[in-house]
Amino acid sequence: MSRGPDAEIKPITILSVMLASPDPAFTVAEIADELPYTAEGVRHQMNRLVDAGYLDKKKAGRRTVLYWPTDAGLMHYVEATSE
């Protein structure tokens, strides 16, 4: 899969990947594997989504961080996809 410019990662893109899966939480690598962006770019955008209140995160291990959509993230997704 070719990698594109990371600055183009939209919040709805990450939320879409998460909400299409039955999994409750995700690592950066899991999301990056589904998108044409670098893991670093995805991590940066996911942390911005945490700051915006659309994702929450928890350090699950020494080097593992899990992310999941918040209620605000779900509402953002619904609003963005119902237009």
What does this structure look like?
This protein has 83 residues and is of the alpha+beta class. It contains four helices and two strands; from the N terminus they run H-H-H-E-E-H. The protein has a two-stranded antiparallel ribbon. The radius of gyration is 12 Å and the shape is globular. The N terminus is likely disordered.
If strands are numbered along the chain, what order do they take across the biggest sheet? 1-2
How would you state the average pLDDT, rounded?
91
**Largest sheet: number of strands, sense, barrel closure:** 2 strands, antiparallel
Q: What share of the residues does DSSP label as strand, in percent? A: 5-15%
Q: How many helices does DSSP assign?
A: 4
**How large, in whole angstroms, is the Cα Rg?**
12 Å
Order of helices and strands: HHHEEH
Question: Helix fraction?
Answer: 40-55%
Low-confidence runs of at least 5 consecutive residues? 1-5
Secondary-structure map:
Blueprint: H1 11-19, H2 28-33, H3 39-52, E1 55-59, E2 65-69, H4 71-81
Antiparallel strand pairs: 1-2
Helix pairs in contact: 1-4
